[in-house]
Design goal:
The protein has 213 residues and is mainly β. The protein contains 1 helix and 14 strands.
Length: 213
């Protein structure tokens, strides 16, 4: 992808588009290549965590990046330092696709994707608001850095079944843990080559590897 190393042709800023938190999901922020919002399940679980998703609705022909996209591109980023009673936010990623656009190979998504986010409360049992600064790259022929601020009051709509279903579906799309017929092991090698062995019940030709560190 031709990204910021060559030329930043546009930065889409969305600070003015954000509104005070009023629901368990934020408003959509619209950009040239799609739109993004933050959705939560509402109330925290028994462990004091609020589950949500960064919901990215890409337009046809546009793409966005995985957590470790390769030499070109930047992964989606979430800054929750302006939030109230939120100690941490951990983003998870469904399996990406491998892309080669003629400028380089990278990992990402070429269709709408929901990235699960787990928010940990600083003081469980106390009200919390999420004020998240979002940064991600979306790409067609060129790439556009999208920056916006998304605000959510999870407790204002704790029984929203639609939001809860979206989060549940996104969590179910995450990679499965290893099992007896599915897993990866690292084989001995030199200091310059990583050798892995995969066991999969499917067609070996369909297996791909994505490494993040």
């Amino acid at each position: 992808m031709r990204y910021m190393k060559i030329l930043v042709l546009g930065v889409v800023l969305g600070w003015a588009a954000s509104l005070p938190a009023e629901a368990s999901s934020s408003i959509w922020y619209n950009s040239e290549g799609g739109k993004v919002r933050l959705v939560t399940t509402g109330e925290p679980d028994e462990a004091g965590k609020i589950h949500g998703v960064l919901d990215i609705a890409l337009k046809p022909g546009w793409k966005t990046y995985w957590r470790d996209p390769g030499d070109a591109g930047v992964p989606p980023q979430l800054d929750i330092s302006g939030s109230t009673n939120i100690a941490d936010a951990q983003m998870s990623f469904p399996p990406p696709q491998r892309h080669d656009d003629g400028y380089g190979k990278w990992a990402g998504y070429d269709r709408p994707v929901s990235l699960p986010v787990t928010f940990t409360l600083s003081s469980p049992g106390q009200p919390a608001t999420i004020d998240a600064h979002v940064f991600l790259g979306i790409c067609e022929t060129i790439c556009i850095p999208v920056q916006t601020r998304l605000s959510v009051d999870p407790g204002s709509d704790p029984d929203n079944a639609t939001d809860a279903a979206l989060v549940k579906t996104a969590l179910a799309a995450l990679p499965s843990p290893a099992r007896s017929d599915f897993g990866v092991s690292v084989l001995p090698g030199d200091h310059e080559t990583l050798v892995v062995q995969a066991q999969s019940p499917g067609d070996p030709a369909s297996v791909d590897f994505f490494i993040a560190g």
